[in-house]
């Protein structure tokens, strides 16, 4: 097994590996297109954070993508072919990706529920933050009138808000790329918060200065989707009671989710819903 830098020639192999190991509900071809866009962007912007694991035949069996933005390191992707799991491949990929964390003051990982993943991050020195999720169909009759969040393309406005919440800002250029997904967009409450949503109602990330703004943004994500659409509010960490109340208020059930891992110096991380891509 060899760990080497990920290169553009690996692109299609990474797409098919993610499709095989991380099945999603969206249209397969649309998802493949998004994965190509996402990985190409990472290779161009974060080449030193992109790593591949290849077997003795040169076949890609795993890869990792890490980014550093405004002093915060994040693990944007780590996946391993199931036939090569429990062989230390994930650990070696994480070690390679963490070399870029040396220039960061804080770090965030959104983990799956797989006990091998949680063990990997815990042994790497990360602190575990338990999470819950809320998934289902929103009872739109319970959405309140007068929501204030509005659709926007002002990605620069997210910088001071995300810096205050996370301890480091999201890069507006990254947000613009993520917003290219079908049925996605930015919702903004000027000076108070923002959310990126996808597939209609599902929030991809949310940062706000106060619980009232965060609640408005989350409910506005729900309102952005068509009637009958399924919403997935993932990895709600402890302390995000505004999100719990909002979800229960529209009759979404709660369930356990994969933990968020953190280490180093970060912001309060509230009100906040993390992004699996940008952390």
From TrEMBL:
Keyword Amino-acid biosynthesis appears in the UniProt entry: no
The UniProt record lists the keyword Zinc: no
PROSITE patterns, per the entry: GNAT (PS51186)
Domain N-acetyltransferase: 1-144
One Gene Ontology term of the molecular function aspect: acyltransferase activity, transferring groups other than amino-acyl groups
UniProt entry keywords in alphabetical sequence: Acyltransferase, Transferase
Name of protein: N-acetyltransferase domain-containing protein
Species of origin: uncultured Solirubrobacteraceae bacterium
């Amino acid at each position: 097994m060899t760990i080497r830098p990920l290169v553009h020639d690996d692109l299609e192999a990474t797409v098919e590996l993610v499709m095989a190991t991380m099945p999603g509900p969206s249209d397969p071809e649309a998802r493949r297109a998004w994965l190509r866009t996402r990985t190409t962007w990472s290779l161009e912007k974060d080449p030193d954070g992109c790593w591949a694991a290849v077997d003795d035949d040169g076949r890609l069996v795993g890869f990792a993508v890490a980014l550093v933005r405004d002093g915060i390191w994040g693990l944007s992707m780590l996946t391993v072919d199931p036939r090569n799991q429990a062989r230390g491949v994930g650990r070696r990929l994480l070690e390679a990706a963490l070399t870029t964390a040396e220039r960061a003051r804080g770090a965030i990982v959104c983990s799956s529920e797989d006990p091998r993943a949680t063990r990997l991050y815990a042994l790497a020195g990360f602190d575990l933050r338990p999470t819950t999720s809320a998934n289902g169909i929103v009872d739109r009759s319970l959405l309140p009138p007068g929501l204030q969040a509005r659709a926007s393309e002002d990605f620069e406005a997210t910088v001071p808000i995300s810096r205050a919440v996370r301890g480091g800002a999201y890069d507006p250029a990254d947000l613009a790329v993520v917003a290219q997904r079908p049925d996605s967009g930015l919702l903004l409450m000027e000076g108070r918060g923002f959310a990126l949503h996808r597939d209609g109602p599902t929030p991809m990330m949310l940062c706000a200065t106060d619980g009232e703004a965060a609640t408005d943004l989350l409910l506005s994500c729900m309102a952005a989707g068509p009637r009958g659409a399924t919403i997935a509010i993932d990895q709600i960490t402890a302390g995000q009671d505004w999100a719990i109340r909002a979800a229960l208020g529209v009759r979404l059930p709660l369930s356990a989710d994969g933990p968020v891992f953190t280490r180093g110096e970060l912001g309060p991380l509230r009100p906040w819903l993390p992004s699996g891509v940008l952390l």
